[in-house]
Amino acid sequence: MSKRTARIVARAASLAILVLAAVEVWMIAATLDRPTPDQWGFRGFEAALALSFGSVGALIATRRPENRVGWLLLLFSVVAGVQGIVDQYPVLAAAANPQLPLAEGARWASAWIWVIPSGGLVAFLPLYYPDGRLLSPRWRPAVILVLAAMAALVGSIILATRPFGPLPPTTNVTPYFDRLGLRIAIGYGLYLVAIGVAVTSAVLRYRRARGDERLQIKWVAFAAVLAVPGAVLGMSPIFLGQVVFIGVAFLAAAAIGIAILRYRLYDIDIIINRTIVYGVLSAILAGVYTASITLSQRVFMAVTGERSDAAIVLTTLIVASTFTPLKLRLQAIVDRRAKPMPVLDPEMTAVLEAAEDRFRQIAREEVARVGAPNPQEMG
Predict the structure, then answer these.
(1) Domain region containing 316
(2) Would you say 130 and 260 are in contact if contact means Cβ atoms under 8 Å apart?
(3) How far apart (Å, rounded) are the C-alpha atoms in residues 331 and 123?
(4) Is residue 379 in a domain?
(5) pLDDT at 379 (0 to 100)
(6) Is 180 in contact with 167 (CB distance < 8 Å)?
(7) Are residues 255 and 291 in the same domain?
(8) Residue 35 CA, distance from chain mean position
C-alpha cells in the first residue's frame, strides 16, 4: 500500500470512529434520565477507548503504513465504536415512544462483541508489536490460536444466550458461570491461554531485542505493569476504579504511539526510575503517616484522656522532615540498580554511527591495500 492510499484509508477509518463515538455520546445524552444498562464500566467508555486507540492507530498507519500495529489498532477501534452503539441502543429504544425495534438484537450483540476489541488488544497485538511482524514464522500457529480462542469465547456466549441458550444476553459474565459452569469456562480458559502465549511471545522478543526495539517494548511493558492494579480496580463496582482502568488504557495507547513513532523514545528509563522512586516513597510515607497518627493519638489519649489536633500537626511535621532525605536515599538505591540510559540526540547518534561505519570501511580498505600480516614475520 502506498503512503497516499494508506493516508486515505486511515483517515476514512478515523472518520468512522469519530462518527460512531459521536452517535454513542448522543445516545447517552438523550437517555441520561434512564437507568444505567447492565454492562461493565461507565457509559461512554467504549467511545473513549475507540478515540484513543484509533487516534494512535491512524498516526501509525499514516506514518508507518508497513507496520500492521497501526491497522490493527484502527480495526479494533472501529469495532469498539460499534460496540458503543449496540451497548446504548437498548436504552434508547426503551426510552423512545413508540419503542424502537431490534432492541433485543442489539442487547444480544452487546453480550459478545466486546470480545473482538478486548481480545484483539490483549491477545493479538503483543504478537505483532512493535514492528508489525511475528517474532518468527513459527509463531503463525499462535495467531490461529488467538483467533480460535476469540471464536470459541464468542461462540460460547452466543450459545449461552437467548434465543440459542437459557440466559438473557448481558455483558455481565457472572450469570454465565453461575448457570452454565464448565461450558462457558472452556471459552474463557482458551482465551486466557491465548493471552499467555501472546505475552510469552512479547517476553521472548524483549530478550532478543537490542537498542531501539528493546526500548519500544519497555514502553508498553511499563503500561502493562500499571494495567495490573488498574484491572483489579476496574473489575470492582467502584466507579473511580473503572475510571482508573480506562485511564491506564489511555496510557497504553500513548505508550504504543510514542514507542512506534519514536517520540521521546529514550525517556522510558527515566520514567521507570521515577515511577519506582515515587511509588515506593508514597507507600513508605503513607505507612509512616498512619503509624504516627495512631501512636500520637494513643499517647495523647493516655496523657490527657482526649484526642488532640496537635497529634496531626506533629505527624505532618515528621512526614515533611523525612520526605527529602528518604527520597534522596531511594533515588540513590534505584540509580545503582536501574541506572537510566543516557539520553542522546537522535541526530548525534546518527552522526556517531556514520563515523563508526566510515572508520570500519577505511580499516578494511587499508587491510586490503597492505595485505594480511605474515605470521612468520610477526614471530
Answers:
(1) 271-341
(2) yes
(3) 35
(4) no
(5) 43
(6) yes
(7) no
(8) 30
| Final residue of a structural domain among 220, 245, 265 | 265
C-alpha 261 chain-centroid distance: 17
Among 246, 265, 284, where does a domain finish? 265
Comparing 77-86, 187-196, 204-213, the range with the smallest average pLDDT is: 204-213
Residues 304 and 252 in one domain: no
Same domain for 336 and 253, yes or no, is no
249 and 314 share one domain: no
Between CA 59 and CA 67 the distance in angstroms is 11
Contact between 117 and 80 under an 8 Å Cβ cutoff? The reply is yes
- Is 378 part of a structural domain of the chain? no
Q: Which long-range CB contacts under 8 A does 330-333 form with residues at least 24 apart?
A: 330/277, 330/280, 330/281, 331/277
Task: Please enumerate, as own/partner, the contacts of 34-38 that have beta carbons within 8 Å and a separation of 24 or more.
Answer: 34/91, 34/94, 34/95, 35/91, 37/87, 37/88, 37/90, 37/91, 38/170, 38/171, 38/172
What's the domain count of the chain? Answer: 3
Q: What are phi and psi of 339, to 5 degrees?
A: -70, 130
- Give percent above pLDDT 70 in the chain: 64
Average pLDDT of span 196-217: 84
In terms of domains, do 259 and 297 share one?
A: no
What are the grid coordinates assigned to 235, written together? 473489575
Which of 124, 137, 135, 136 lies closest to 79 in space, CA to CA? 124
Residue that wins the pLDDT comparison between 252 and 278: 252
Over residues 141-191, the pLDDT tens digits come to 999 999 998 888 888 888 888 777 777 887 777 777 777 777 778 888 888
What mean pLDDT is reported for the chain? 76
CB 91 within 8 Å of CB 104: no
Instruction: Note whether 85 and 20 are within 8 A (CB).
Output: yes
Check if the beta carbon of residue 42 is closer than 8 Å to that of residue 243: yes
Alpha helices (H) along the chain: 3-30, 45-63, 68-95, 103-113, 115-119, 125-128, 140-160, 174-180, 182-208, 212-234, 239-261, 268-304, 309-337, 346-370, 375-378
Q: Would you state the cell numbers that stand for residue 240, as one nine-digit string?
A: 473511580
pTM, 2 dp = 0.68
Residue 283 within any structural domain of the chain: yes
Residue 341 has pLDDT above 80, yes or no: no
